Amino acid sequence: MTDSLEALLTPKSPTPERPLLGLTVLVVEDSRFASEAMRLLCLRSGARIRRADSLHAARKHLRVYRPNVVIVDLGLPDGSGSELIGELAAARPRVEVVLGMSGDSGAEELSIAAGADGFIEKPISSLAAFQHRVMSCLPDGACPQGLRVVNDDMVNPDPIALQDDFVHIADLLSTERGDGILDYIAQFLAGVARTAGDSEMETAANDLADHRQQGLPYEANVAHIAGLVQARIEPHKVV
């Protein structure tokens, strides 16, 4: 279905059950697993979703389309999401809502300082919490009037998306070994693991980040992470 036809067939006014109906959300997120969670949250809320996995892809998208809401993860492969938040906050006309997103401490302060209207802390799987974050930043008249159905459902992303994230990191570990890529791998895995509830992987990723920050040897950390990643991929291989 083309965008124009879909727009004609989609009701524009939000409803108590689908309070984000009629809105388009651009999610700038490099993790497939986190993006799948956001897709389900948007779908259940009535919003249409588009995705970009880097600053470059997001800027390219924004040259063509104008979403109502942009949700920007701060840790992206080609820079900090705070750069894009600052650009969106200064643009005229301005996107209605710009939200930062991260699971790292201090990320909310960084997002707000860059110009974000609000912040989403990862992991987020509650439909009610997601809707509240977005609706609290929307302009007057953009939300349904009167009582709203508060849905306490939780979304569960497809585990195949999580496998895609681990395969992505396995590829990076086998082909890239620069300092920058190791910092990216550490923050990426920490975020994915936090979203998936994988405490072992999150601890390993944070240990790598700490060792690099303190100037300590980190080769053993990289080897440990590589083993954990492979252990999470191997059981799912098709023979």
Kindly report the average pLDDT value.
89
State the order of secondary-structure elements, H for helix, E for strand: HEHEHEEEHEHEHHHHH
Number of strands: 7
User: What does the main sheet amount to?
Assistant: 5 strands, parallel
CATH architecture of the largest domain: 3-Layer(aba) Sandwich
Order of the strands making up the biggest sheet: 2-1-3-6-7
Oligomer description: single chain
Q: How helix-rich are the residues, as a percent range?
A: 40-55%
Radius of gyration (CA) equals 19 Å
Keywords: Phosphoprotein
Modified residues (4-aspartylphosphate): 73
Protein name: Response regulator receiver domain-containing protein
Pfam families: Response_reg
Can you describe this structure?
The chain is an alpha/beta fold. The chain has two domains: 3-135, Response regulator (Rossmann fold); 159-236, no CATH class. It has helices at residues 3-9, 32-45, 55-62, 81-90, 107-114, 127-135, 159-175, 179-196, 199-213, 219-233, and strands spanning 24-28, 48-52, 69-73, 75-76, 79-80, 97-102, 118-121. It has a five-stranded parallel β-sheet, sandwiched between helices. One of its GO terms (biological process) is phosphorelay signal transduction system.
List keywords for this structure.
239 residues, alpha/beta, Rossmann fold, 2 domains, two-stranded antiparallel sheet, 10 helices, Sig_transdc_resp-reg_receiver, Bact_response_regulator, CheY-like_superfamily
